[in-house]
Amino acid sequence: MLGPITFRQLIDPTPEELEATAQVAVAAFHGDEFTKCCLGGNWDLSPAEQRALINAQQIGGENWVACDGDKIVAFAGWYGPGRTLFDSPEQEAAGWNEFVEQMPARLHAWWMDEFLPQYDATVDEALGQGIKQSIWHLQLLATHPDYQRRGIGEALVKHKERLIAQAGDCSLMCLESEDFKNCELYKKWGWDVKGNRHFETLWGEFDLRAQAKIPAA
Length: 217
Hints:
Elements: E1 5-9, H1 15-29, H2 33-38, H3 46-60, E2 62-68, E3 71-79, H4 89-102, H5 105-127, E4 136-143, H6 152-167, E5 173-177, H7 180-188, E6 192-201, E7 204-213
Parallel strand pairs: 4-5
Antiparallel strand pairs: 1-2, 2-3, 3-4, 5-7, 6-7
Helix pairs in contact: 1-3, 3-4
């Protein structure tokens, strides 16, 4: 039986808390087509990728977690105005460099020469040049499979959205979705699709959608 779910921002987290958060992402994204492409089809790389993302968010942004008792069951990673993923050596050193070292050459080439440049171009075309860096950005949202379809992810996102709206210093939020079902879910939550790009890789294909929403209290 599901107990009361509580939300909190990770402040000065322990290594165990960060690892628990990463493992939620590993479980949540296993089998996902976009994640498979990012890993070059090698699921053994998933923990390294998720640690890189979550550790970077902890340094440059915010990690918000949903807990069942003391157990982390979902999280949302956000970047505020002026910050983005891997925008500093400190973020890169917290796990990204280690992930890069584990990439085969052709996967590394895809990330650097195709995916990241086209990712940024898609968002700029959808929102306007530099807009993403000036607003709140939902970088990552994941719920452990055992806790999905219970409204936890939606509640976690809306918790932070209310705080953004109450602060009154940001008129727009954005995110990127790659899974069609997730895109439709975000649309139900009020996030409009502003742009889309189709990616074909050696390991599969996916659509990257830029979505945006005016924060509401």
